[in-house]
Specification:
The chain is an alpha/beta fold. Helices cover 36% and strands 26% of the residues. The protein folds into 2 domains: 122 residues, Periplasmic binding protein-like II (D-Maltodextrin-Binding Protein, domain 2); 88 residues, Periplasmic binding protein-like II (D-Maltodextrin-Binding Protein, domain 2, 3-Layer(aba) Sandwich). The protein contains 8 helices and 14 strands. Helix 1 packs across helix 7 and helix 1 packs antiparallel against helix 8. Glutamine (GLN) binds next to loops.
Length: 230
Amino acid sequence: GTEGGESKTYQVGIDTTYPPFEYEVDGEYTGIDIDLINAIAEDQGFDIEFNPMDFGGIIPALQAGQLDIAIAGMSITDERKEVVDFSDPYFDAGLTLVVQSDNSEITSMEDLEGKTVAVKSGTTGAQFARDNEEEYGYEIAQFEDSPSMFQEVSNGNADVLLEDYPVIAYAIAESGLDLKTVGDRLTGDQYGIAVLKGENAEVLEQINAGLQALRDSGEYDEILNKYISE
Ligand code: GLN
């Protein structure tokens, strides 16, 4: 018998809980990232296996060779480009401040002196908080996943959190969290699919080709519209 024609299985790292990009419903992974990578894999003829983990563990797992691909609402940054290669961008995002719904005290970074800012380990939010800590004079509290971070502000242990605006908008709309976004968007960035730098040129090419095919066929828009209403 021949093994020829059997497709390769890639290990895909995803964030544990990051709706609408990746989350679990009845034991099945679902969300924009899940649908996109499944559709790309189908278009390009490879198989995938999902590995949910804390976001902060994903790039280390790529570097350790435990993952081939990461799709986790991951923002394309110059710092990350030193260790991973990114696909073409597939989604626009960026950071916003989030406070309890009835908080009228905090509306911008200028209001954060002496406050506690909750962030998620390894994220652009955590980096942004560190970069501005000295200027604005707040304390940083770090969490491993977004729900724990949201909880911390809901229950009043932290005053404010930093999260990507599409994610917090979805969380507030869908789960009735007692939170609101305030102020201007702090940053603008784009999500990309990551592979270990310099090691995976072939799969990166497949990912970009698949992404383009989904855009051309309209499936990309269908996937986004399924999770995000205008
Ligand atoms: N987009 C943010 C980042 O890349 C957050 C990602 C996430 O929490 N899954 O750091």
